[in-house]
Specification:
6-stranded mixed β-sheet; 399 residues; 8-stranded mixed β-sheet; elongated; alpha/beta; 16 strands
Length: 399
C-alpha cells in the first residue's frame, strides 16, 4: 500500500465521527434544490479558517468551489459532492429526522459530510500528496436545470484535468464499491403536451371535442415508441408522469396537460424517440379535431465514464485496499440520471457508486432513493471518503 495513502486513511478514520455529525446536521436541516442558502453557508463556514481558496455562489445558485494546493507540482483533479435535498416529507423515525418539509432522501447529506472531512485532511496534510485538488460542492442536482451545467459554464473546471464523483446507493451492500466502464447513467429529457378541445355537457358529447379521450389515446399509443420504434437492444424508457384533466364528472373536459419523461443511453435513440413522440402529439389534431402544444426539453445528458481513467482508478483502489472495503464490482449502467454528466462531457471523468444498504435489513430495510423511508448506513461515509481519496491521490502521485 502507498505509505501516504495509509496515513491519509488513518486521518480519515479519526474524522469519521465528524463526518457523521455533519451528515446528521445536514439531514436534520434539509433544504431542497435552489433553496440551499443555509447549507451553503454552513459549508463555506467550515472552510473559512482552513488553508484553501473558497468561491461561493458559483453558477445558478449556491454552488461552491474550494481550491487546495499541495505546493508540490502535478495535475489538478476535481472532486464533486452535491448537497440539495428533495421536497419529500420524511417518515424514518430517526432521532435526527428532518425538521423541515424537505428530506435528504438520496444521500446528498452524506456526500457533503464525507467530502468536507476529506478536504480538511488534504488541507492539513499537504506534504502527503502532489498537485492540486478542487472540491466542487454542487447545488441543485435533483431539479432541472440542475447546478452542474451552470457551474461548468461559470468556469469551475478551468485548469482541471479530471473529475471524480461518487454516490451512495441503497441497493448495494455497505462495503461494496461499484463502477461502470463507458456509459454509467442514463440521459434524461422531459416533454409537455397541452391538448385543447371544446368542452361541454356530458349528455351531448357530439357537440364537444374531448381532450381527455385524445390524451388517453396519446398515453396508450406513445408506449409503441419504445416497443415498435426503438431497437430492442437499446435502452430507452418513456413515462407519462402527469395527466391533468381535472373537471366535473358530468362535463366533457376541453383541456388536458401531460408531462412526460424519457431516459436513454444513446443520443441517436433519444432523437428517434423524440421525433416519434412529437409525431404522435401532432397526429391528435387530425384524429380528434383538437389543437396541441408540444414542447420537448433536453435535460441531463447521459453520464459516460472515461474508460482509461476509470480503469486506472479502480486498479489504484485494488492496490490500496482498506479494511472497510469488501468488494469492488464492475457493472453496467444505472437507470437514474445524474447531472455529473456535464462534468464528464468536459473532461475525462469517472462516477462511482458506494453501497449504503444496511446489513440489518430487519431493522433498516433497503428503501429506494427518493422514498420517505430512505435509509443510509453511515458506515458508507468513511468508505466513500477513502475510495475517493485513494482514486484522487493515486492519480496525482502517478502524474
Amino acid at each position: 500500500m502507498n505509505d501516504s495513502l495509509k496515513k491519509i486513511y488513518g486521518y480519515l478514520d479519526d474524522a469519521e465521527d465528524d463526518m457523521i455529525k455533519w451528515r446528521r446536521h445536514f439531514h436534520e436541516n434539509a433544504e431542497p434544490s435552489f433553496e440551499e442558502e443555509q447549507t451553503a453557508k454552513d459549508i463555506s463556514g467550515f472552510y473559512e479558517n482552513l488553508d484553501c481558496e473558497i468561491k461561493t455562489n458559483v453558477g445558478n445558485g449556491y454552488g461552491l468551489t474550494v481550491d487546495i494546493d499541495s505546493g508540490n507540482p502535478g495535475k489538478t483533479i476535481a472532486l464533486r459532492a452535491d448537497f440539495d435535498a428533495l421536497p419529500i416529507k420524511e417518515d424514518t423515525g430517526l432521532s435526527f429526522a428532518s425538521k423541515t418539509d424537505a428530506m435528504h432522501a438520496c444521500g446528498h447529506d452524506g456526500h457533503t459530510a464525507y467530502m468536507m472531512q476529506l478536504a480538511k485532511v488534504l488541507i492539513e496534510h499537504k506534504d502527503l500528496w502532489n498537485g492540486k485538488v478542487r472540491i466542487i460542492h454542487q447545488n441543485a442536482e435533483e431539479k432541472d436545470p440542475g447546478g452542474a451545467k451552470s457551474m461548468v459554464e461559470s468556469g469551475c473546471l478551468d485548469g482541471v484535468d479530471h473529475v471524480i464523483g461518487a454516490h451512495v446507493m441503497s441497493s448495494m451492500p455497505v462495503g461494496e464499491v461499484h463502477y461502470a466502464l463507458g456509459n454509467a447513467q442514463t440521459g434524461r429529457d422531459g416533454f409537455t403536451l397541452d391538448i385543447q378541445g371544446q368542452g361541454g355537457h356530458a349528455s351531448q358529447p357530439n357537440l364537444t371535442t374531448d381532450a381527455v379521450v385524445a390524451g388517453a389515446y396519446f398515453v396508450t399509443e406513445a408506449q409503441t415508441v419504445i416497443s415498435r420504434r426503438v431497437d430492442p437492444f437499446e435502452m430507452c424508457t418513456l413515462t407519462i408522469g402527469n395527466f391533468d384533466g381535472q373537471g366535473p364528472r358530468n362535463a366533457v373536459n376541453g383541456h388536458v396537460h401531460l408531462d412526460g419523461d424519457v431516459r436513454y443511453l444513446d443520443d441517436a435513440t433519444r432523437d428517434k424517440a423524440k421525433d416519434a413522440i412529437e409525431q404522435f402529439a401532432k397526429s391528435l389534431e387530425t384524429a380528434f379535431n383538437v389543437e396541441t402544444e408540444f414542447e420537448y426539453d433536453e435535460g441531463y445528458p447521459k453520464l459516460h465514464n472515461d474508460e482509461d481513467f476509470t480503469k486506472q482508478l479502480i486498479q489504484a483502489l485494488d492496490d490500496n485496499r482498506f479494511d472497510e472495503l469488501d468488494e469492488i464490482v464492475e457493472q453496467g449502467a444505472e437507470a437514474p440520471s445524474e447531472d455529473f454528466a456535464y462534468y464528464a462531457d468536459e473532461v475525462p471523468s469517472t462516477f462511482l457508486w458506494i453501497g449504503c444498504k444496511s446489513p440489518d435489513q430487519k431493522k433498516h430495510p433497503a428503501y429506494p432513493h427518493h422514498h420517505p423511508k430512505f435509509y443510509m448506513d453511515e458506515d458508507a461515509l468513511l468508505i466513500a471518503a477513502k475510495t475517493v481519496v485513494c482514486a484522487a491521490i493515486s492519480y496525482l502521485d502517478e502524474n
